[in-house]
Amino acid sequence: MRRLMKNPVGLLGAILVTAMVGLALVGPLIWSGAANAIHPQQISQGSSSAHLLGTDALGRDMLARTLAATRLTMGLAFVATLIGTGAGILLGAAPAVLPRPVARAVTAAVDLLVAFPALLLAMFTAVVVGLGGRGAVLGIGVALAPTFARLTHTLTASVTGSDYVAAARMLRVPRHRILTRHVLPNIAEPLILNAAQAMGSALLGLSAMSFLGMGVQAPSYDWGRLLNDAFGHVYVTPSVVIAPAVAVTLAGLGFMLLGDTFAKAAGRTTATAAKPVPPVVARAEELPLPDAILEVRDLTVAFPGGVTPVRELSLTVHPGQIVGLVGESGSGKSMTAAAIGQIVPHPGLTGSARMRLCGTDLDTLGAAERRKLLGSSLAMVFQDPTSSLNPALRVGGQLAEVATLHDGASRAEARDRAIERLRRVHIKEPEQVIRQHPHELSGGMRQRAVIAMGLMGTPRLIIADEPTTALDVTVQREVLRVLREVVDDTRAGALFISHDIAVVSELCDRVQVMYAGRVVEELPADALHRARHPYTRALIGSMPDMDTDRSRPLTTIPGRQPSPADIGTGCAFADRCALATDRCTERPALTERDADHLVACWEA
Q: How many domains is the chain built from?
């Protein structure tokens, strides 16, 4: 409201809309008598002291009739807006819950209707339904629906890619509940704000329909009907069209200005889809490790167009162990986490020689069994807690949802568990925090709340995808301490993803260095000073310490990492490596050079 008061355009729109709403409430009560009074001796007169803006063909006062018609005009526009917005939201949200072929058909139908002129669509509907106020209202509602459907579809697509929606899918939340609980509440604001603009369009459209004789019929009258009745006398007594014309203009302008002011605050994003292609998957023959919490062999993630962000990656996480996955942005770290959690975005596909979680091969499970295992044994802590937590729901409800869905806990039991888990991650006054929304918490508290959400079940594996990137150093240390404590207390395994090799060396037990979708070196964290791969040594060298010469520029790695679509058959780091030779045109395999130390480099 403060912003609205400071915006002259929005303030003018608010004043006009308020005035029209006030007239709609009191207009018929005050002016209906004068509006319906017939004066045969004053038929079709111009402006006079008795009738300021003239009279119609029956001698009725045009100003009084315009003021009295405000209620019917505004009421019909409101109903048409409700029909248009309601139908549009249903059409726009339907693709999120319908099977893909049906969803595409609905989207194509909406695109076709958007391309059709709105007024012609309204007139066609009115002719089919029948002339009159009801037909005009339905016609305008049908004409408004495609625009709202397109807006809803766009907003829905932006929300369905959020981490908390992906988590809800992992929890086997039904599609319709995801839509009503997670998607629609988070797109309600821009839809409501754009409804003000739609109200102005509905009012102008209804007035146009009535002016053309396809809307309100005598003896009822709205502003468009008054313009229709007065149009035959406009050249003789032009004052008779002033009142309804000004009313239509001011009301439409008010709603348009107000809606435009609100609509500028609503962000709009688009989402695209592509046809998937199967990845190339390597095969491994070694026996599975019986004590490993997570065992991945030859994991590959591929997208259309030859984009392969993860290539034949293997890793193992044991109980009580934190494995660090480190590398530059774009090296495939987060996509690896998504593949393990089975949340690679469409149209990406994953394949592996083996993917075992808690001793169970995920590839042998059905969809329901896989979701149950992942939902109960895997906890994911994403980089941005704001996208992991639904801003429309309270923190306690989001934590409790895990316990109620997976463990069948009652609401009271789930609430008590949520309080205990928040206390476990060192959040003060958890009884108050569970009643708050995510925006009321600090960044560090939100991240710890996400960790607590992962602990609502009994996770055996915790995947933390750069959970401290957006936090200051002090809060970062607190979050890392909480993660270490959780792993030590529960004997769970953890996969910690970061681009900060200093953080990885401090927190993790073992480190895997990724470059261009592959692991190029694997070694214990306390042995990083003995790193052999040129890329790992370059990462360590670019990290300043207390002994760094401040008179010299910081060490950097020349060049840039290749795109996942441009990786050749040789060593991907060769173009940036000072040790590169002709042999680097062939890709080196990840082989053991020292005890518990693997390197993929010909010269290391």
A: 2
Cβ-based neighbours of 561, under 8 Å, separated by 6 or more: 328, 330, 331, 515, 516, 572
- How do residues 438-496 score in pLDDT, each as one tens digit? 888 887 788 888 888 877 777 889 898 887 776 677 777 877 888 888 888 888 899 99
Residue 257 maps to a domain: yes
Domain that holds residue 325: 294-544+554-559+566-599
CA 598 from chain centre, in angstroms, equals 40
Burial category of 407 from C-beta neighbours within 10 Å (exposed 0-12, middle 13-18, buried 19 and up): middle
| 525 in any annotated domain | yes
Quick check: 182 and 158 in contact, CB under 8 A?
no
pLDDT digits (tens, 9 = 90+) for 316-358: 999 999 999 998 888 889 899 989 988 888 778 888 888 888 8
Q: What is d(CA 327, CA 173) in angstroms, rounded to the nearest whole number?
A: 34
Length, in residues, of the chain: 604
Residues 523 and 442 in one domain: yes
> How wide is the angle at C-alpha 480 spanned by C-alphas 474 and 481, nearest 5°?
90
List, for residues 419-442, the tens digit of each pLDDT value: 888 888 888 888 998 888 888 888
Same-domain check for residues 252 and 340? no
Q: What's the rounded Cα separation, in Å, for the pair 511 and 533?
A: 13
3-state secondary structure of 116: coil
Alpha carbon 231 to its chain centroid, in Å, reads: 50
Q: Say which residues have a Cβ less than 8 Å from residue 191's Cβ, sequence separation at least 6.
A: 85, 89, 148, 151, 152, 155
Decide: 436 and 393 in contact? Cβ < 8 Å. no
Q: Would you place residue 131 in the very low, low, confident or very high pLDDT band (cuts 50, 70, 90)?
A: confident
Return the CATH number at 534: 3.40.50.300
- My answer on whether 166 and 96 are in the same domain is yes
**pLDDT exceeds cutoff 90 at 510:** yes
